[in-house]
Write a structure and sequence with these properties.
- By secondary structure, this protein is of the alpha/beta class.
- It folds into two domains: about 170 residues, Cyclin A, domain 1; about 130 residues, 3-Layer(aba) Sandwich (Oxidized Rhodanese, domain 1).
- It has a five-stranded parallel β-sheet.
- A hairpin with an 8-residue loop joins strand 2 and strand 3.
- The longest helix is centred in the first third of the chain and has 18 residues.
């Protein structure tokens, strides 16, 4: 327990733990929006926020929710994962109750969680691992998590995925790491941010900084991620991430956030099965664009922390060859 609590519940039991808990619940909200935007939209519309039901889940690592024989099974898996795995368990529980949650309003949801229905723990474990494998490791970054360790043992579910290779909290900070945000700023964003180092790793970008044209390493399987650059065509042409697509903000959403029918919309729709990373030269624009996508039930949307400016020093941006 002396190892378990710092890993999964670091500073949860301070006399004033409000900042720690609020950050945790906010990241959990972003995970719901990331994996199930339709459910996230509905729960937000009726005001059924995680503060009303999820605090006992995370304070007790679900022992408040499940009988002991189910906890044995759940913790067997939890202990293999890193400190962010509980978010995936929480989302998996919500998804088992999805149909009932979507069909009900605030009062009915409160009653539903006051006497939680039977949860298939085997399905919960299986689905939480799948959610875990689809989540970029820096998306669950928390400022109040356990401090980085000198070395990392590489926690994660083996080599089942290119996404989670280690616990993000154990990684050393670099200029390409996630930047801490004020709680108010974190709460204002619907979608999680990911780090530039995560994007480089997941897009498999290579090429020393002095190369003018970086190359992508060959892949044996179809990539799970796509970078969507929402800057203007002119800015995009001056330098962009190799393999990224240019979808200018104004070409997809109208002034009220409504989705416009246009080629850019169709291009975005074709990537709906992947993780979509929104990037811009202004992070607020990227966050707003991501929020609009979530509003129209677009899954697995995240934002590049620091935007295109974080990528410029890497030498990984490419410029299209001039037409002859």
């Amino acid at each position: 327990m002396s190892a378990f609590i710092p890993k999964y519940l670091y500073n949860f039991f301070l006399k004033d733990n409000s900042h720690v808990i609020q950050e945790y619940l906010t990241v959990f909200s972003q995970m719901i929006a990331f994996h199930d935007p339709e459910l996230s939209n509905h729960l937000n519309e009726i005001g059924f926020i995680p503060d009303l039901y999820a605090i006992p889940w995370f304070l007790t690592m679900f022992t408040h929710v499940f009988p002991l024989h189910k906890i044995f099974h759940l913790w067997d898996t939890l202990l293999l994962g890193n400190s962010s795995f509980p978010f995936c368990i929480g989302v998996a529980i919500l998804q088992q109750l999805r149909d009932r949650l979507l069909a009900n309003g605030f009062n009915e949801c409160i009653l539903l969680f006051s006497d939680l229905p039977e949860i298939d723990i085997e399905r919960c474990v299986r689905e939480s691992i799948n959610l875990f494998c689809w989540t970029p490791k820096s998306a669950t970054y928390r400022q109040h998590a356990q401090p980085p360790k000198p070395t990392s043992d590489g926690n994660g579910f083996g080599k089942t995925t290119a996404f989670y290779s280690s616990d993000y909290q154990d990684l050393s900070n670099t200029d390409l790491s996630r930047e801490p945000l004020k709680l108010s700023e974190l709460k204002a964003e619907v979608s999680p941010r990911i780090s530039a180092e995560d994007l480089i790793d997941l897009c498999e970008l290579t090429g020393p900084a002095h190369f003018k044209t970086p190359v992508k390493r060959p892949k044996a399987v179809k990539t799970k991620i796509v970078a969507v650059d929402i800057r203007s065509n002119e800015d995009f042409s001056r330098g962009h991430i190799p393999g990224s697509i240019n979808v200018p903000y104004s070409s997809v959403f109208g002034p009220d956030g409504e989705l416009l029918q246009c080629p850019s919309t169709n291009t975005l729709a074709s990537y709906k099965s992947r993780v979509v990373v929104i990037l811009s030269n202004v992070t607020k624009n990227a966050a707003a664009f991501a929020a609009h996508l979530v509003k129209v039930n677009f899954p697995r949307v995240c934002v590049l922390d620091g935007g295109i400016n974080k990528m410029k020093p890497t030498g990984l941006l490419t410029v299209p060859s001039p037409q002859i």
